[in-house]
Amino acid sequence: MDNRLPADAVAFAAAAAGRFEKLGGVNLARQAERDRGARHAAANALTELGIGDLDVRADEEHLLAGAALCRAAGAVVLPWPVVSDLLAMDEHRIALIDEHAVRVDHGDLPLSWVVADLDGQTWSYEPAGAAPTGRLGPFVTQGSLGPTSVELSTDDVARYLVLGAWQLLGGVETAFADVCLHLRQRIQFGRPLAEFQAVRFTVADTQVRVRALEELAKYTSWRLVDAATSPAERTADALALRLHAVEAARAVLRTCHQLYGAVGFCDETDASVIDRHLQPVLRFPVSPEVLAQRLVPAIGSGDLRGLGR
Fold first, then answer.
1. pTM score
2. Phi, psi at residue 140, to the nearest 5°?
3. Collapsing DSSP states into helix, strand and coil, what is residue 143?
4. Using one digit for the tens of pLDDT, what is the confidence trace for 58-75?
5. Residue 142's beta-bridge partner residues?
6. DSSP secondary structure string, 152-181?
7. Is pLDDT larger for residue 274 or for residue 263?
8. Tell me: the pLDDT tens digits for 180-204?
C-alpha cells in the first residue's frame, strides 16, 4: 500500500485548512458556543470549498478528498456536521446513533435528518426543543425517531465511521502540536519542560499514537475502495478503525491535559476547546465496549484484517 495521499487531496486539505484559519481556527468554535448563528460561517466556507461537489461514495479520489476535509475540520473543531453533510442523501443529513439514547451533534440545525444504527436501520429524526447548554457536546440535541423511506447501506455506515476517525485525527494533531509548543516555552527549574527526559518519553509515546492512527486511517480508507474487499471486511475494518481512533484520541487528549497541567482545562488553551467539541465524535454512536463486542464475530470469521496481513 502506498501510504501517500494523492496530490489533489493534499492540495485540497491545504486549501481547507487555510480557509478555516481565516475563520479564526479554533476561535470559531469558541464563538459558536456564545452565538450559534456563527456556525453558518463554517457552512459558507464549506460551500466555497465545494463540499457539494464531493461524492465520497464515488471513488477513491473523492473519498480521500472527503477524508482530508474531515481532518482539516477536526483540526479546528469546525462547528458544523461535516461528515453528515458529506454523506447526505436526498437532501437529508446522515448521522449514526444509538437508538436507545438518541443524540445528534448539531441536530438543531433546521434541515432534515436521517439517522441510523450500526446495522443500517434508518429513522427520521426530529430534535426535541433547543440544544442543551451542557459543556460537553455544546451542540448536541436529543430528539425523537420516526419512519423514513431513506435506506442506508453497510458501506455508508463504514464511510461514516472512517470519516469520523479522520476528524478525530485532525483534532488530536492540533491538541498535541499545541501542547508540544507549550513544553518548549514553559520554563521549570531553569529549563524548558521539553528538556526533561520523562516528558520526552511521554511525548514520543504520544507521537507514535498519533502517527499510528494516521496510518490505520489511510489503510482503512484504501480498503473501503479496494474491489477485492468484501462488504463484511469493509464493515469490520471500519469498526476496528473507529475503536482504535476513540482509544487513541482519548489517550492523546489525556496526555495533553497532563502535560499542560491545570491550565489545560481552561478555555484559554485550544486543547480544552478541542477536547470538549470532540466529545460527540468520541461518544457517538456507541461506546468502545460495544464496538469491541461487534468486532468479535469478525475476528472469528476472518473478516477483520490488519496492516500486518
1. 0.95
2. -80, 135
3. strand
4. 999 999 999 999 999 999
5. 103
6. --HHHHHHHHHHHHHHHHHHHHHHHHHHHH
7. 274
8. 999 999 888 889 999 999 999 999 9
Q: Where are the domains of the chain?
A: 7-86, 93-146, 154-301
- Reading phi first (left if > 0) and then psi (alpha if -120 to 50, else beta), residue 222 is in alpha
Q: How many CB atoms lie within 10 A of CB 212?
A: 13
**DSSP three-state, residue 129:** coil
| 3-state SS assignment for residue 103 | strand
Q: Which residue shows C-alpha cell 476496528? A: 240
End-to-end CA distance of the chain: 12
Residue 87 contacts residue 56 (beta carbons within 8 Å): yes
**Nearest one of 232, 216, 217, 212 to 300, comparing CA atoms:** 232
Give the integer Cα–Cα distance in Å for 252 and 94: 28
Question: Which residues in 135-161 are b (16+ Cβ under 10 Å) and which e?
Answer: eebbbbbebeeeebeeebeeebbbbbb
The span from the CA of 66 to the CA of 221, in Å, is 11
Neighbouring C-alpha atoms within 13 Å toward the C-beta of 37: 0
The single-letter DSSP state of residue 123 is E
Domain 154-301 CATH (choose: 1.10.12.10, 1.10.287.3610, 1.10.10.10, 1.20.140.10): 1.20.140.10
CA-wise closest residue to 34 among 106, 110, 138, 171: 138
**DSSP-derived secondary structure for 14-83:** HHHHHHHHHTTTHHHHHHHHH-GGGHHHHHHHHHHHTGGG--TTT-HHHHHHHHHHHHHHHHTT-SS-HH
Angle among Cα 153, 40, 22 to the nearest 5 degrees reads: 105
